[in-house]
Amino acid sequence: MRQLFLALALLAGNSLFAQDGYVFKEGLASGPCHQYGRTALFTDQLAYALSEGQLQAPGNGSNSFDGEKWQSVSAGEDGTFSGKALTNGYLYVTYNSPKAQTAILNISGHQMVYVNGVPHAGDMYRYGWMFTPVQLKQGVNEFYIRTLRGWGRQGLRAKLTFPKQAVYISVADSTLPFIVKGKDNSGLWGAVVVINTTGRALKGLEIKATIQGKTLTTTLPDIAPLATRKVGFMMDATAVGSDHNSLALALSSQHKVIDNKEIALKTVSAGEHYSSTFVSGIDGSVQYYAVSPQLNPGGKAPALFLSVHGAEVQAINQANAYKYKDWGVLAAPTNRRPRGFNWEDWGRLDALEVLNIATQDFKPDPERIYLTGHSMGGHGTWILGATFPGKWAAIAPCSGYPTLMGYGSADGLIPDSPKNNTEAILLRASNPSNTFKLVNNYKAGGVYILHGDSDRVVSVDYARQMKKILADFHPDFSYYEYPGGEHWYGDTCVDWGPLFSYFKWHTIPADSSVKVVDFTTASTAISSKYHWVQVLQQQHALEYSRVQLRRTGNTISGTTANVAVLALDLNDFAGDIVLDGQTIKYAGGEKTLYLEHGAGWRIGKAPAETDKGIVRNGTLKEAFNHRMVFVYGTAGTVEENAWSLNKARYDAETWYYRGNGAVDIVADKDFKAGDYADRGVIIYGNATTNKAYALLMKNSPVQMSRGKITVGDKLYTGDALAGYFMYPRMDSKVAAVAVIGGTGLKGMRAAEANQYFAGGSGFPDYMIFSAELLKGVETEVKTAGFYDNEWKLSAKDEIIN
């Protein structure tokens, strides 16, 4: 009888629930059938079946994947699905809609969901803030919800609601500043989510923000159909006088108010911890950082402490953990979310943005800039410290792990060491995340390692490992295990007196006083400079480049590895430069000396701005910078065009939720390169289906159109091929273009996974694969690799299967 009820519930959508809201209570679990992580390789049997058009509605006991069976599962009284049956699989639920209509889907605790075959982003943080407009058809609507690992402990909830307003504000996920008395509060930025449940793009919406009678109006960017977008707005808080203030928001279209919301604002006195907002150069979204102000500033330039938080920790809580320091100010960036990007990729860029803002605002002593963090922030300290030597007088990782891969955060299919050429290329794309290969960079400053000896979350073995590594070469590091300390043993596990005393002893040396250089980088566009030495180009992109030099009197001598062009900032130097055993006579006179490495070393010039170098050095992910815009195709078939818009929207949803971000979504027919100058562009589709392709990708050595892909003189044909590849915008000195698509619907659906947003994941300049890769067949990566410095194919830097 129960099985009959379950079957009827799945088919009929369980009409026992009220029509204004529906909580999913019954479903089917597939069993394990996918594995995603921080790698370009993944497996997903259900996604493969969907791409091939072979996915059939399951029933209780019907065959799933890899010998598994679909089995019925029920949610608890609070609507939570849980249990081992859901781990690394899919939960199948249905809703029987009496009519075609738009609903808001709210799921928490999932990677993503297919709604009638259309992908939508997941709430991997389990915050419950993901409100996704979905188009329901009359009759049975199918939802395949991709589950996370560790299901039995966390669980998943899913529901549908039917909004009374077509467009409205959601304040559940707001980004707002603190109002600090005595500061200039005239032009503050905030952000809220606007939800568009209509089938048309919204243009010209406005938000009026009013605080204590002061009103500012902000015109909002376009919001795509059936989409959520986090939008920034300005506010004037100069009239604030009390501790209790509210912000009134009015959303209007053509001067007609369509929604109102009111939000309480946090007001603090000068000298208290606070949050400050800014507009990010990464994507134009509103972000925030937190501050622990200097205690009793005396007019002398303060020290600056950059503190990076752990997983699930808000930046303001990170700042609150520190007592005020009389000799410095502390700034805590967000990593774009409490988990965000693990301080890799856009988390790394967020940290640099906040460092730059804090340097401008607080004008610290440039010799006294320090880096610290806890847990995931301990990893952030290790990776930022290794990536940017010379920026920090000293670093202090607390309860941290050195690498994602070593800690188990990679969750991917590629091991630390590759077992074939495909894995070697993909691991190479992740080289900037490998702190062990950058470890010599720690010699640039002091290192203080703090870890509780009873930590069961991040084992103290990681600290002991780094202690052993540093002991082999580092002349100035300190190590302390806190007796009985667990992962969090109170504020002292970050605000530790001896740690800040250690900081006080250290300063960043002037370039002229640095006589020995030992610098390693994996990408010149990420990190290129250490004091007076800069690697401008690599011989092979994303392999490790190392420069070891010693300056004595009128001689600079040393060795290099994987360096094509080197720049030396030389003041009052003339003499011999001995590189790799070759002597170059330098008469002086130039502030910067450029050295090129061909058959040997010679005095040369800076690389062309259009070449690979310190601004653009490749990898797919580089295109997702510089206020990227997503361009979907309208020149294909109805099905291809629908895929393109759905995929662009899916990526925008994922970027919003994973990184607190916002993206412009534009149709190819509306895209004009001049309107988006110097911005990264993501093209969805191929040359046949997307009109923007010809504008931006005509010179690329990788070409994709309906039915075929060419990579130089190699030709791949069929409708089940997918591609991720990038190329520089030739009309820009900074931006790049990426293509996400396929040769047909099968290939396009195979390209739907967007783990390129996972922090630390590695994607080369180009990667062509077939849908069979989704079944775990690595050889279905047809080719992948890195361009040379002139953005041409390089036989030495690619794999062909």
Which terms summarize this structure?
single chain, 801 residues, alpha+beta, Jelly Rolls, Immunoglobulin-like, Rossmann fold, 8-stranded mixed beta sheet, 13 helices, 35% strand
Structure description:
- InterPro entries: AB_hydrolase_fold, Esterase-like, Plant_Biomass_Hydrol_Est.
- Helix content is 15%, strand content 35%.
- The protein is built from 13 helices and 50 strands.
- The radius of gyration is 27 Å and the shape is globular.
- The protein has 801 residues and is α+β, with helices and mostly antiparallel strands.
- An eight-stranded mixed sheet has the order 22-23-25-24-26-27-28-29, sandwiched between helices. Strands 41-40-42-47-46-48-49-50 form an eight-stranded mixed sheet. It has a six-stranded antiparallel sheet with strand order 5-2-7-12-9-10.
- It has five domains: 21-164, Jelly Rolls (Sandwich), CATH 2.60.120; 166-269, Immunoglobulin-like; 271-507, 3-Layer(aba) Sandwich (Rossmann fold); 511-538 and 542-603, no CATH class; 622-798, Chitobiase, domain 2.
